[in-house]
Write a structure and sequence with these properties.
The complex is a heterodimer of chains A (115) and B (317). In chain A, helix 1 packs across helix 4. The longest helix of chain A is centred in the C-terminal third of the chain and has 28 residues, at 84-111. Helices cover 65% and strands 12% of the residues of chain A. Chain A has 4 helices and 3 strands. Chain A has 115 residues and is α+β, with helices and mostly antiparallel strands. Chain B is an all-alpha fold. Chain B folds into 2 domains: 3-63; 75-313, no CATH class. Chain B has a two-stranded antiparallel ribbon with strand order 1-2. The chains are: A alpha+beta (115), B mainly alpha (317). The interface between A and B is medium-sized, with 17 and 17 residues.
Chain lengths: 115, 317
């Protein structure tokens, strides 16, 4: 039970940074909160609504995202997309992640050379 | 919209800043309605809102910053200072009240005297709790914390040169205790300034000051004492000398010294009967007070010089 808790904490820590990258990756086209949640869930990326909605707002206040309200449907929805600065940040972050992934992968391969 | 959703959103935005509420409310409404789908039943609404977490926790995610007055970094120090100051303030407050009863016995019963003493002690608890909390909250809000400083190569190197520039906790706590006593004395004198008198066996007590004129100056004196109190707490939280702390501390000393010199030289405050009793002329009395003021200024200058030495030149821990 204690091991499960420790593992759960590690996974939470691991997810904390990568989830932002996942969110940014889907916002090159405009999306509203719930559609983004579903898009990520379809790709097996589990993100709680109570994490995503405040995160979108925070990223918007940082200038990474820009938003607009669509009032043409039966109820208004707030659509988010990457801002120009956000797109540049996303590209750099993605490159960093891929490099990091390669390094970690090489660590795993050394550990299990036949894997 | 479902009543439960409205209540949930209202409770969530209640925990947010006023200027954030309207927009978060709109966002949450749109998001929750998307989550529950068209014509949701009670169970679906409840399930969605439970998944979002409590309104307080959701609001804290939106705030993205802690919702407490005093952060975990500062809390142990706050608790320590609060206990020390309370330990001094409560007995002193009770003691002043009892002394007041002995000097000018009021026409009340023993039970009423005990009740007044307890009320004074409780008043001291409230006063100390209020001011210590305010001072620490301000220090915390301004991020006057060593953990908030930039950690870079320069900061690392500064560790080596900073070893002699630690502000001694003991002396600051001593200042806080002394200021607490001063504040209690000033508060007590505000209601009983007649007790500040010359007591003789031959005659009735001769008040040192004209009570009605002294009252506004006592309020100002409390303000200056509170300022010094806040500065001491900033030093305690900061723990190390820096140019900013040195400037603030020096300004505090200048303001405090200046105020007491100003107060002491308000000649209209002194009771003329006192001078008659002491057989002193106005000129002689003013000379004595001015000499005391010169001594105060000298002590202020020594304090500033000592702090400059500790902050800028002193070597070793």
């Amino acid at each position: 039970m204690q091991d499960d808790q420790i593992l759960s904490n590690f996974i939470t820590e691991l997810n904390r940074g990568t989830l932002t990258l996942c969110v940014l990756s889907r916002l090159q086209t405009p999306q509203y909160g719930y559609s983004l949640l579903q898009t990520l869930a379809d790709r097996q990326i589990v993100l709680e609504a109570n994490t995503l909605y405040p995160m979108l707002r925070r990223l918007e206040s940082q200038g990474v995202l820009e938003s607009s309200w669509d009032t043409t449907e039966s109820r208004p929805r707030k659509f988010y997309r990457l801002s120009e600065a956000g797109a540049a940040i996303y590209e750099r972050l993605k490159r960093h992640w891929l490099k990091q992934h390669t390094h970690i992968q090489s660590l795993f391969e050394e550990e299990h050379p036949h894997a | 919209m479902h009543d439960l959703i409205q209540s949930y959103i209202a409770e969530t935005i209640h925990h947010l800043r006023g200027d954030e509420r309207a927009e978060v409310q709109q966002e949450l409404e749109a998001n929750i309605l998307d989550m529950v789908g068209e014509n949701p039943d009670e169970a679906a609404v409840e399930e969605t809102l439970l998944a979002l977490g409590s309104p307080a926790s959701l609001a804290s995610q939106y705030r993205g910053r802690p919702g407490h007055l005093i952060g975990p970094d500062t809390f142990p120090l706050y608790w320590k200072v609060l206990r020390i100051v309370l330990l001094v303030a409560v007995p002193f407050s009770a003691l002043f009240t009892v002394i007041g009863f002995f000097i000018t016995p009021p026409a009340i019963t023993l039970v009423e005297m005990v009740a007044r003493t307890l009320a004074a002690a409780w008043g001291a608890v409230v006063l100390v709790f209020f001011w210590v909390t305010i001072a620490f909250a301000v220090a915390d809000a301004q991020q006057i914390s060593v953990t908030a400083e930039t950690w870079d190569r320069a900061a690392l190197r500064a560790l080596q040169t900073n070893t002699g520039k630690i502000i001694k906790t003991g002396s600051v706590v001593g200042d806080l205790v002394a200021l607490t006593i001063l504040l209690l004395v000033l508060t007590f004198l505000f209601s009983r300034s007649d007790l500040l008198a010359l007591y003789t066996r031959e005659s009735d007590p001769i008040p040192l000051f004209i009570a009605a004129r002294l009252a506004p100056y006592l309020i100002a004196a409390m303000g200056v004492a509170l300022l010094s109190f806040a500065l001491s707490i900033i030093k305690l939280v900061r723990r190390r000398w820096s140019p900013t702390i040195l400037v603030i501390s020096t300004a505090g000393t200048v303001i405090t010294t200046g105020f007491w010199v100003f107060l002491s030289t308000r000649w209209s405050l002194y009771n003329p009967d006192l001078l008659i009793f002491l057989t002193l002329t106005q000129e002689r009395w003013q000379l004595i007070i001015r000499s005391l003021c010169a001594f105060w200024i000298l002590m202020g200058a020594v304090t500033i010089a000592k702090e400059c030495h500790q902050a800028l030149w002193k070597k070793g821990v």
